[in-house]
User: What shape does this take?
Amino acid sequence: MAAEDSREPVIEVDRVVTRFGTNTVHDGVSFSVARGTLAALIGGSGTGKSVLLREIIGLHRPTEGSVRVLGTDMWQAAEAEVAEVRRRFGMTFQDGALFSSLTVAQNVAVPLAEHTKIAPEMREHLVRLRLAQAGLPADAGAKMPSELSGGMRKRAALARALALEPEILFLDEPTSGLDPATARAFDALVRSLVDNLGITVFLVTHDLDTLLTVVDRLIVLADGKVLADGPPREIARLDDAWIRSYFAIRTMVGGSPGRSDGS
Amino acid sequence: MAPQADDRLAVSGDGLQISLAGAWQLVELPALAAALAAAHPRSPLTVDGERLQSLDSAAALELVRALGAAGQDLDAVRWQGFSEQHRRVLDDVLRRRAALAEAVPARRSGWLAEIGRRTLSVYRQGIDHLGFMGETLSALLAVLAAPRRLRLRELTAQLEQACLNAIPVVILVTLLIGVVFAYLLGLQAEQYGANIFVVDGVGIGMSREFAPIIVAVIIAGRSGAAFTAQLGSMRLTEEIDAIRTLGLSPMQVLVVPRVLALLIALPLLSFIGLVAGLVGAALVADAMLGIAPMAFAERLHDALDITHVWAGLIKTPVFALAIAVIACRLGMHVGRDTRAVGMATTSTVVQSIVNVILLDAGFAVLFQELGI
Assistant: This one.
């Protein structure tokens, strides 16, 4: 990760069109995310944020357009090539999606056992590092997912996503369902991953505090297109009805991301 | 062409300086670990990272661990030449060093404890089944006392699922059982010229044992598993809690209609199964033993006392209650994760079938004593 390639795009979404029957969800969505960025995707309900995320990570085929992750076209490249790229990114799902039959430590060890030839003893140390990086105490490793609180599940999912030292992390609603204090701690954790480990993070969220405190770049989806793209504080000042109402709540509570009255 | 691990790690002649180079990454970990194990660093140690191309946290952890294992005091090591990014990764790992030293406590126990745990769980499960049976019966009585409380819509939906939709598979299976049973009996009876007694054997066997048991096993696998899976998923999605919060009783809303549906379905299906089995037997009797369908019917009329049919049918509501109670209880009390639903469903099928057979053995003894 030398300085000159720090701006190299790692996620490129090019004119993606998604239709379900006659319902067009995305009508030519394009953007790219550079390495080492903490980017967030926002949009109202039904604007296809989660679908877009699934298209980027190769779980849902877009109707038209292309998606490149780490330079590989997720929908054109051979299966083996895509599998190779999958090893280089991590993903956390909304409710963790931990394997319920395994302990947290075993969950984190799954990708390590599947994709590397690391000796079991070393693997155990690495699992402990991942748990610590995700902000979990060491004794959480022996617990079953059903014994964890919502915040712990999200951290455990993050530890599993981090297992293979990913270059990109995709987070789906990382702070939903968490209390504000836990959510802010999670934000700080994600920020530190970007700053300390140089990971690119791409998240879908509705959490305004996340957007305004730790995110570098905001991509706003509306009416099947990218409505706005840039640093959160600039976007909050844009004169668009939806964006204004989105950020207005924040202003009412007392923060001031920009003028709420429009001009 | 992957570079040799040796290229990435050079130790100075006096062992006082280690120079790192190239890619230090997770995928290379086994080779890096081998190289680190072969290095014998001495204090005061300097680690040079100037020629590193990449360093991820897994490789940094291995470096720190190996140096620690070689007896180095990590606070005294001089780290030089690392880029800012690599230094941050290294610091992140060094900072967590203390926390990583604590081992993850293992979750293990001996075989004796395991036997004890399982025995206790079988015992508790038996008690819980009985408790749930009591709850179900009192809920049924409450419905009897106030029939308006019955969820008629749910009951009919369950009846369609458990009874109507099960008819084809019940007919298929019992018909084949009738065919096989009559064929095997016929092989023996033919030797003694006692062809007509096949009708007696099939009539009594099908009505007393085969139809009720076969149908109960089919329903245990079909409806019992479905009940547990449905109620289990409803518990996972907190639907059952929602029902309770709305001031409704899950027993009344979910359990009673299902239990009633099976109580109604099983006798009906058993009768259908009995008829299908006899039809299967009549087909074989006609083709193999020269007993025309009319002769079969007449003989059946003479040989099959109606008490045999009642003795078979009277058992079916008891089987139904056992299956429904086990299925509903395991579904309602499932653990809060997806694996638990699968285990509970399997458990329902196994426990229902075992209980049906046990109950049937009990009935056999009872009927023997009563002389039925």
About this structure: Chain B has two domains: 5-101, 150-370. Chain B touches chain A at residues 25-27, 29-30, 33, 53-54, 56-58, 61-62, 65, 85, 88-89, 91-93, 96, 99-100, 102-107, 335-340 (CB under 8 Å). The two ends of chain B are 85 Å apart (CA to CA). DSSP finds 15 helices and four strands in chain B.
